[in-house]
Amino acid sequence: MSKLLSIEPAPLRKLLKAGLRRGASPQELNVVIVDQFKWSPDSEEARRLLGHLKDIGWLVFEQERWKTHF
């Protein structure tokens, strides 16, 4: 949890927090992207960010939910 609290900027922290515990549905994750980053979920920025988080293993899609792993 301390690793999560040290992540900046705050919108990234909130996106990752959405995936903790039970995970976030794709729709819930899209809401966080719109609300926190002011991006369209289909935007190049959103795709790049999610792709990077998947590449480093911090965000994984399992059992129909996005889950945060540290």
Structural commentary:
The chain has 70 residues and is mainly alpha-helical. The protein has a single domain, classed as Arc Repressor Mutant, subunit A, CATH 1.10.10. It is built from 4 helices and 2 strands. It has helices at residues 2-5, 10-18, 26-37, 44-55; strands at 59-62, 65-68. A two-stranded antiparallel sheet has the order 1-2. Helix 2 (10-18) runs antiparallel to helix 3.
The biggest sheet, with number of strands, parallel, antiparallel or mixed sense and barrel status, is:
2 strands, antiparallel
CATH topology: Arc Repressor Mutant, subunit A
**Estimated radius of gyration:** 11 Å
Number of domains: 1
The rough form would be described as: globular
Strand line-up of the largest beta sheet: 1-2
Name a few traits of the molecule.
53% helix; single chain; two-stranded antiparallel sheet; 70 residues
Topology:
Blueprint: H1 2-5, H2 10-18, H3 26-37, H4 44-55, E1 59-62, E2 65-68
Antiparallel strand pairs: 1-2
Give a summary of the structure in a few sentences.
Helix 2 packs antiparallel against helix 3.
